[in-house]
Design goal:
Radius of gyration: 21 Å
Strand order of the largest sheet: 1-2-3
Structural class: mainly alpha
Helix content: 55-70%
Order of helices and strands: HHHEEEHHHHHHHHHH
Number of helices: 13
Distance between the termini: 19 Å
Length: 368
């Protein structure tokens, strides 16, 4: 177990180093200024904050997170409400997702990626004997989702809302929720999803553009075309670190959502596959680190879910950049330019390290 923990931390450190390098390289613009230094300095600040948060989280007893989960959810919901209040929430590019105070901006929906899974795991652990009941086994698990997801949708942030639904579904699946409830949930969610898309013309255009890109590349959305061109320009070995051209005002969001494309151009296929290999190493060493935990308890459910959604977000970002799924603004954890996502990702890693310790009293009693 100790070796797995060391490997897990080592892979996380390698990903952070990789991200630091690429943030500096991808922040260079066509007009050389102090812009790239500003981005690097900002990233370093969030990196330091994230490492401190991860260190604090990892030092806590696993029981702390089980007890703190519902309070974290309440705090997150309060922040999600505040971000919608005029004068407190900040609107950028048509979306009101940020709370900004002098010198700092935060995105509460990122914190929801930890709060919602932890709360769902706490509910499963607390109501395990009632999971098969129609009322007591359904209502308590639906309430957190019905509170958090609509607040995120209002911002609007469809991608994060779907991500939260996926995390909640994973927790319930691992916890042994009856199949009938999943079928009922699908029957409710599908019409709601269709209705949401029907009310948002820009989302319809985004999906239509994605489908068109596979039939007629010239008709593809600008962002997708630039992403694929950037990836293709690198070939096998890449053009060299810092020598990419597409980031020079051609590729939108080069140091955040589309940093993977910059990696493809500058480090080539070898660079992109190396990054994927690092994520596989982090995920597999993390799973091995959790092997000794009781799969029915809070510690395993929460740590497995946080680890899976962290790696899942990285793979989803890669899928967006490579035009495998419709374009959606989603950061690459530990790699994209720092902000709320970097801090929350490091916090999730710290929580996984904390929960991987065999300090749960019930687990120890069962083992004896």
């Amino acid at each position: 177990m100790e070796l797995s923990r060391q490997l897990f931390v080592a892979f996380a450190a390698l990903l952070l180093g990789f991200g630091l390098l690429m943030v500096h390289s991808s922040s260079v613009t066509s007009w050389p200024t102090e812009f790239e230094q500003v981005h690097l300095s900002r990233h370093l600040v969030f990196l330091i904050v994230g490492v401190i948060a991860a260190r604090f989280a990892a030092s806590q007893n696993p029981e702390f997170w089980r007890r703190f989960a519902p309070w974290l959810f309440v705090i997150t919901v309060a922040l999600l409400v505040l971000v919608l209040v005029p004068g407190i929430g900040v609107r950028v590019k048509g979306a009101q997702r940020w709370i900004r105070v002098p010198g700092i901006s935060a995105q509460p929906s990122e914190l929801a990626k930890i709060a919602v899974p932890l709360t769902m795991c706490w509910l499963v652990d607390w109501n395990r004997d009632r999971l098969s009941h129609w009322f007591a086994g359904t209502v308590p698990f639906v309430i957190p989702v019905l509170i958090a997801v609509p607040l995120v949708l209002i911002e609007p942030d469809l991608g994060t809302a779907v991500f939260l639904l996926g995390s909640a579904t994973l927790v319930l699946f691992l916890g042994g929720w009856p199949l009938r409830n999943f079928l009922l949930g699908i029957g409710v969610c599908v019409p709601v999803a269709i209705g949401t898309l029907a009310m948002k013309p820009y989302q319809q255009r985004r999906i239509a553009g994605f489908l068109e890109s596979w039939a007629n590349f010239d008709a593809a959305p600008y962002q997708l075309k630039q992403s694929l061109v950037t990836l293709g320009a690198g070939g096998l070995h890449g053009v060299g670190l810092g020598r990419g051209w597409q980031k020079l005002s051609f590729l939108p969001e080069a140091n955040t959502d589309f940093v993977f494309a910059v990696i493809g151009e500058e480090l080539g296929l070898i660079g992109t596959l190396s990054l994927i290999a690092l994520w596989c190493g982090l995920y597999l060493s993390g799973l091995r680190m959790l092997n000794h935990l009781d799969r029915r308890r809070f510690a395993y459910l929460a740590s497995f879910t946080l680890l899976t959604q962290l790696a899942g977000q990285a793979m989803l970002n890669i899928a967006v950049v490579t035009a495998m799924v419709p374009p959606k603004g989603i950061s690459h954890p530990l790699i994209s330019a720092g902000g709320s996502n970097l801090v929350v990702s490091l916090l999730a890693i710290g929580i996984v390290l904390s929960l991987s310790r065999n300090d749960d009293p019930e687990t120890k009693i069962a083992a004896i």
